[in-house]
Amino acid sequence: MSFSKQIKQSLRRRLSRLHRDRPALLGFLFHGIFADEQEINKGHVDAQQGITRQHMQQFIEHFLQAGYRFVSPEQGLDFLCSNQKWICITFDDGYANNLRMLPLLEQYDVPATFYITTGNVEEQQSFWWDVVYRERHRRGVAKPLISREQKMLKEKHHQDILGYLQQEFGTSCLQPWSETDRPMTIGELQEFSRHPLVHIGNHTRDHYLLDRYSGAEVEKQILRAQRDLGNWLGRAPTGIAYPNGNYSSTTVDAARNTGLQYGLSLDKRKTPLPLESNQSSIFTLGRFTLWGRDDIDAQCEITRSDIRL
């Protein structure tokens, strides 16, 4: 971390202690959980936040010590009407490495919700952004250029993204390289979901960035994932985490129309409580992200504050 960034984070951390820990819901987004830095450095996957098991343990302990209660929206939404401090652990996509969370959930007796992109699970295909990362990484392309290419692809229709990948990297490029980058299998997801601390949510069929599509396309993506999860697990989720956090009024309407009860965005904000169940914000609940390269405790303290810099 640069010296200037250290100064800024120190200032934010001090200011965050002035107004914090009022009744609210704090949501946190994670993608993968890695054994260690060595696994991250293999380059098999775009590590994104770079969260290891040790980081996750530090995160959970921080909020338990601060008096927060862990909850999953899939357990019901009554907690949103309370005057308490709640926190949600959420994982998007459905990586097989998420299975590593189970010992931590059991150790601390906290729930977590895993939002599944069912197409990748059923087809056992890598996520497209990982394909871009690992193929460019092994060719020695710098990370900023890889990120630029990923950002460019986010503007395309999903089928066009897949066509681009196959043209650039070959027809077998979506095949996972290792345990690090593969999605869960249906069997793993079924077994995982049976645990009382594990809850499953909707992350669409194919990870469409939903604000780019028509209402009909959005509903189709949501309903296909609902059908998949209902068939595999015997029950369908009650909520969705919008892929990439992208949503629009059309997205929210589609989520309601398909019978879902809540939606998670990536708006970096707390949800003050109590929250009336009929408020529109129940479909755009905020979530924070943590970064393994920075001080975990400092980041946690900043999210607890009502002060936003």
Q: How much helical structure, as a percent, in the residues?
A: 40-55%
If you average the pLDDT, what whole number results?
94
Shape: globular
Percentage beta strand: 5-15%
Report the end-to-end length measured between terminal Cα atoms.
19 Å
Descriptive key words:
40% helix, two-stranded parallel ribbon, 12 helices, 7-stranded mixed β-sheet, TIM Barrel, alpha/beta, 309 residues, 12% strand
What's a concise summary of this model?
40% of the residues lie in helices and 12% in strands. With 309 residues, the chain is of the alpha/beta class. The strands form 2 sheets. Strands 1, 2, 3, 4, 5, 8 and 9 form a 7-stranded mixed beta sheet that branches. A two-stranded parallel ribbon has the order 6-7.
How are the elements arranged and paired?
Elements: H1 3-16, E1 24-30, H2 37-40, H3 53-65, E2 69-70, E3 85-93, H4 101-108, E4 112-116, H5 118-123, H6 128-138, H7 143-154, H8 158-169, H9 186-193, E5 198-202, H10 215-233, E6 239-241, H11 249-257, E7 262-264, E8 271-272, E9 288-289, H12 296-304
Parallel strand pairs: 1-3, 1-9, 2-3, 3-4, 4-5, 6-7
Antiparallel strand pairs: 1-8
